[in-house]
Each structure stands twice: as C-alpha cells, then as structure tokens.
Amino acid sequence: MLFLNHGLITLISLFFITACSSSVTQIQLHELGEVVDLHTGQRLSPMQFAKQIATHDYLLIGEQHDELKHHQAQFWLLKQLQQTRAQGSIALEMLSIDQQADIAKISQNPSAYMHNLPSILRWKQSWNWAYYADLIQSAFANQTEVLATNLTQEEVQTLMRGAEPLNGYRSTTTNVQQKIADLITAQHGFETTSGKNSEIIRKMVQVQQFRDRRMAEKLAQAKTPSLLIAGNHHVNRQIGVPLHLADLAPNIKITSILLGATSENISAKDADYYWILK
C-alpha cells in the first residue's frame, strides 16, 4: 500500500465491510480471467498458471486492496497450491510486526482461537477483514507459518519525523525513488512537489521503501515455499520488494504477479505474470 492517511483508509475499509456481501470463496473458475506470462506473451488459464508456478519457492502476488476479485483469485490460488504442496509460509502486508506475538499465540492452538481471530490478532480496521479472513484461517488451519511484514505505526511516525536513509544498491537508486515519488504525488493529488510538499513526499518515499525492505527481510528468512500478499506496487520489480531482495539475498529467485482488470501497459520489467480479472 502506498502511504495513505490512516483515517481515510479506515473510512474506505468500513464502507467495503458493509457494502461487500460476496464471499472470497464464492467464485467460479470461468470468473478468474486469464494470466499473461510477461516473458513470453503466452496467455494462460488460471489452472495452467497454477500448475506452472507450483514449484516456485517465492511467490509475490499483488492486489488492489479494495478489489474483491483480487482476493478471490488469491484465495483460489492458495487452495490450488495447497493441493500440490505444503505451503511453508504466508507473509502479509496487512499485519505489522508488533502483531507477530499474537500470531505465535494462535499458531500454538489454532482451533482455540479460530472463532475470534480478528480480536486475538488485533486486526486493524484499515484492512477489510472479510477480504482476508478465509486466507488467514486456511493458513492457520494448515499449520502454515504466518508472517507479519509491515512497519508499526510508531516506526512510520519515526520515519515521518526524519530518519537515516535506507542503504541499498539496486533498491535505493535515484531512479527508483523518483518513480515512487511520482506514484505518491499522483495518488495524493499534490498540486506542487516543491517547498513543504517536496519534504513530505521525500519522507513518504522513505516510508514506502522501509516497508518494502521489511517485507524483503521477512521473506528472506521465511519457510519455503513462501507466498507474499501485498499491494501491486510492493511486488513490482521496478520499485518494490524484488529490488530489496536482490540487495539482501541475490540468490533468491522470486516470481512476481500483478493483478489488474485491463490489458494495461505492463511488461516483464514490472512482473513475471499479469493476472487479468475483469
């Protein structure tokens, strides 16, 4: 998720909690669109895609957070993968590292907490629980390691007050940071990027990059096969977690999957696969 006002996210999420009545599990195969292999241009059915990536150890799958079909596709893919392999870990942008102790508590005896997961996890209202409940319940039920990967609110506040810049080689170039700044500028509607706005944007870029670095650190230590669920920008090869993994653990081979609704101008520079869900 690109840096957004927390109150705004909460209002948006509460709207979707009340407005969305469809279940993440209720989707037919013909509704799952098609997947484009961005290296070859080949168009794959969801079943062909699932079989093709079943042996991949690090899957980074994106989403637009308020798109139900994206969550349905993610859950469907997880269930397909679970039929062919034991899932080692699931890493989630939606959980911050101060929730890892809650995750550990649940993991010791999942059945005792399954009826009350949001409360035990201290799930944040800024994320629509209805979209993630089935996936998280499935992970605990199958004894899959669940990893919190996001910054805490205190860490975000520290970064916004000013912090030492992140060190990196591929991940922290001026080009990468400018691309993130452009996305933030467009998303937040800054009329100008000069003066005070320039400093705010710079700090927001730092927050985004520290988020990506944290996700990369957690993935590098995760049990394999591992699946990261995060916003599309986080799994993008040009600006996100893949660059940080290349800095931290260059021997790790990742597969990046972007989700969208149209045949956008997306190439193998951005991801390995593009899942089109209309």
Automatic annotation (TrEMBL):
The keyword Cell membrane does not apply. It holds the Pfam family Cofac_haem_bdg. Keywords: Lipoprotein. InterPro entries: Cofac_haem-bd_dom, Fe3_uptake_reg_CjrA_prd. The keyword Lipoprotein applies. Residues 50-245 form the Haem-binding uptake Tiki superfamily ChaN domain. This is Iron-regulated lipoprotein. It comes from Bibersteinia trehalosi (Pasteurella trehalosi). The lineage of its organism: Bacteria, Pseudomonadati, Pseudomonadota, Gammaproteobacteria, Pasteurellales.
